[in-house]
């Protein structure tokens, strides 16, 4: 599974860009891995532009083979999260 970790005030492009790239690659690959958005608190997560993305919790994440961490204005606060 490919996990994209998001947090409040993440940069939408930092999540959507990699998700789209893996989605297009999956069209040409057999057995492509699932792509999931993840967050410390599951549910809608507001980006810095105000767009919300629904994320699964970290505990629900199965074997992650690739983890992408979005950037954005909220990254400093997210970095100190236990």
Molecular structure report:
With 82 residues, the protein is α/β, with parallel strands linked by helices. The protein has 2 helices and 5 strands. The protein has a 5-stranded mixed β-sheet, covered by helices on one side. The radius of gyration is 13 Å and the shape is globular. The two termini are 23 Å apart. The mean pLDDT is 88.
How many strands, which pairing sense, and closed or not: the largest β-sheet?
Answer: 5 strands, mixed
Uncertain parts: none
User: Approximately what portion of the residues adopt beta-strand conformation?
Assistant: 25-35%
Helix content: 10-25%
Q: How large, in whole angstroms, is the Cα Rg?
A: 13 Å
Mean pLDDT: 88
Helix and strand content put the structural class at: alpha/beta
Question: What shape does the CA trace take?
Answer: globular
The ordered H/E elements are: EHEEEEH
Strand order of the largest sheet: 3-4-2-1-5
Distance between the termini: 23 Å
Counting DSSP H or I runs of 4 or more residues, the number of helices is 2
> How many distinct beta strands?
5
Provide a brief overview of the structure.
24% of the residues lie in helices and 28% in strands.
SSE arrangement:
Elements: E1 2-5, H1 12-26, E2 35-39, E3 43-46, E4 52-57, E5 66-69, H2 75-79
Main attributes of the structure:
globular; alpha/beta; single chain; 82 residues
